[in-house]
């Protein structure tokens, strides 16, 4: 390791500590309470009128040190909060006080034990009777300073550069409590989703991440190689085809929360690996799934945040059901003036787009052109929760067609805050129709196209045993967390987002 001059000073302190018989990285700690538990115990005792001392041993990072002659004040911070420490030479002795002054720095993990009290200024504090080093920090954390402005605590943190924050998430978490709260919220979101689906009788399952044939979405996969089996395998781009196999096996309601991997571009709402929720429900259609979706998201918001009206990107958004329903054709017509049903071919639709001053990409299929109209013009307008429904078959290879209209499928996407949140179908369960869809996908896309969907013979075999009618649903956990924490890039809600190599 290469050290800066300041780091070299701390490395030298480690050597001097060991020479003095002090271990800078002891094997054991004796922590009995978190800072929050210690404060709560003391507060409860005050309220109850108890006078017996509250004895605790806490641990955490040193965040401030004030040396005041024979008295020291410090603050430590753990994952639950911050607590003031009070050191006095009369209690600890001159040697212990001198060792604290000489060896302990901001950022070190320490342990301190004693009794709780309240200072004359009213701050709940630990009167330290014993302390020790738990882990010496060699590299100083980026400085953070708090000040009170108009009664509110304002934090001035040196670690604000997004690139550095994402690359050194450990430092970001250590100095920015609000970042820690984002990921606690994310964990509560996942738990609330699980609880909701479990209460509806769904079974949580796990399906393969390494797959011999990728499918279930339009995306380019990551490819790896199995040395023993001598075969290429793909990191999954979706759980869909495996989860739907389980309905053939009479597991009527299944869901999975896990990682998907897509070898495609990155953006404020895309990361190469992301966390997905998918569920499939026998004997349901997309209308039933709409109802479940709006109730599930409202339940998660209320459980996690205690409210259904949230703020996102400057907008106040009401997640209370029922959500707005809007046919895709009507939505595109309203924002662009183009009726996609009047243009049954790619050439006709591209010409209509040019007539409206747009520049469609050459060689795009009709489905891709419709998708571009949706993404470029309609999606940004969908701020309040909206279900867009009834999608062209061109862009829905796994969805069941509407009765009497084979070119339109029973599919919806949920939009909130101007971004897509979820996707759902009345699932195709006719193996002959599914085989034809696979063949059509193979003809419509060349072998290098990232949206080419390979034929999956085993999935067709599963369908041929009989697959019940069903509704299916997929949603990115990352985007839902963005929405509920008012974060505007996916990198803010993924602990370790993928980044280019440093310096590129």
From TrEMBL:
Pfam families: tRNA-synt_2 (PF00152), tRNA_anti-codon (PF01336)
Binding residues for Mg(2+) 2: 420
GO cellular component terms attached to this protein's record: cytosol
SUPFAM superfamilies: Class II aaRS and biotin synthetases, Nucleic acid-binding proteins
UniProt xrefs under InterPro entries: Aa-tRNA-synt_II, aa-tRNA-synth_II, aa-tRNA-synth_II/BPL/LPL, Lys-tRNA-ligase_II, Lys-tRNA-ligase_II_N, Lys-tRNA-synth_II_C, NA-bd_OB-fold, NA-bd_OB_tRNA
Cofactor note: Binds 3 Mg(2+) ions per subunit.
Cofactor: Mg(2+)
Catalytic activity, EC: 6.1.1.6
Location of the Aminoacyl-transfer RNA synthetases class-II family profile domain: 183-497
Cellular localization per UniProt: Cytoplasm
Domain of life: Bacteria
GO biological process entries: lysyl-tRNA aminoacylation
UniProt catalytic activity: tRNA(Lys) + L-lysine + ATP = L-lysyl-tRNA(Lys) + AMP + diphosphate
GO molecular function: ATP binding; lysine-tRNA ligase activity; magnesium ion binding; tRNA binding
Keyword entries, A-Z: Aminoacyl-tRNA synthetase, ATP-binding, Cytoplasm, Ligase, Magnesium, Metal-binding, Nucleotide-binding, Protein biosynthesis
Signal peptide range in chain numbering: none
Positions of Mg(2+) 1 binding: 413, 420
HAMAP family: Lys_tRNA_synth_class2 (MF_00252)
Subunit relationships: Homodimer.
Similarity annotation: Belongs to the class-II aminoacyl-tRNA synthetase family.
NCBIfam families, sorted: lysS_bact, PRK00484.1
Protein name: Lysine--tRNA ligase
Annotated organism of origin: Anaerolinea thermolimosa
């Amino acid at each position: 390791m290469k050290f800066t001059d300041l780091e070299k000073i701390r490395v030298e302190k480690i050597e001097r500590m060991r020479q003095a018989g002090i271990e800078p990285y002891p094997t054991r700690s004796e922590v009995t309470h978190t800072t929050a538990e210690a404060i709560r115990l003391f507060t409860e005792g005050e309220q109850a009128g108890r006078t017996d001392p509250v004895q605790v041993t806490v641990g955490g990072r040193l965040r401030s040190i004030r040396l005041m002659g024979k008295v020291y004040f410090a603050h430590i911070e753990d994952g639950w909060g911050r607590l003031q420490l009070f050191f006095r030479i009369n209690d600890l002795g001159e040697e212990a006080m001198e060792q604290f002054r000489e060896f302990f720095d901001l950022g070190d993990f320490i342990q301190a034990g004693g009794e709780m009290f309240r200072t004359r200024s009213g701050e709940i504090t630990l009167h330290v009777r014993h302390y020790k080093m738990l882990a010496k920090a060699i590299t100083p954390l980026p400085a953070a300073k708090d000040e009170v402005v108009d009664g509110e605590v304002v934090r001035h943190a040196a670690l604000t550069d997004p690139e550095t924050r994402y690359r050194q998430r450990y430092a970001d978490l250590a100095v920015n409590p609000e970042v820690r709260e984002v990921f606690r919220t994310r964990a509560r979101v996942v738990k609330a989703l699980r609880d909701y689906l479990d209460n509806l009788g769904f079974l949580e399952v796990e399906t393969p991440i390494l797959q011999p044939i990728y499918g279930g979405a339009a995306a380019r996969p990551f490819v790896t190689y199995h040395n023993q089996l001598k075969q290429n395998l793909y990191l999954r781009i979706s759980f869909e085809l495996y989860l739907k196999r389980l309905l053939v096996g009479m597991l009527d309601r299944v869901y999975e929360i896990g990682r998907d991997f897509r070898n495609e571009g990155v953006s404020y709402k895309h990361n190469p690996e992301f966390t997905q929720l998918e569920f499939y429900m026998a004997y349901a259609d997309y209308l039933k799934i709409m109802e479940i979706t709006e109730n599930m998201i409202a339940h998660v918001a209320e459980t996690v945040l205690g409210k259904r009206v949230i703020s996102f990107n400057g907008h106040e958004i009401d997640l209370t059901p029922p959500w707005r329903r809007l046919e895709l054709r009507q939505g595109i017509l309203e924002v662009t003036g183009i009726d996609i049903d009047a243009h049954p071919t790619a050439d006709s639709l591209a010409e209509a787009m040019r007539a409206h001053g747009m520049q469609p990409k050459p060689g795009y299929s009709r489905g891709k052109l419709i998708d571009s109209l949706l993404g470029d013009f309609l999606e940004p307008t969908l701020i309040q929760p909206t279900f867009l429904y009834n999608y062209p078959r061109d862009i829905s290879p796994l969805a069941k067609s509407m009765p009497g209209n084979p070119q339109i499928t029973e599919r919806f996407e949920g939009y909130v805050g101007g971004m897509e949140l979820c996707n759902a179908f009345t699932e195709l369960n006719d193996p002959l129709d599914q085989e034809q869809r696979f063949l059509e996908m193979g003809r419509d896309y060349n072998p290098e196209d990232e949206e080419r969907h390979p034929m999956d013979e085993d999935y067709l075999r599963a369908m041929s045993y009989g697959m019940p009618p069903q509704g299916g649903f997929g949603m990115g956990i990352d985007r839902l967390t963005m929405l509920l924490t008012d974060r505007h890039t996916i990198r803010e809600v993924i602990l370790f987002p993928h980044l280019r190599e440093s310096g590129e």
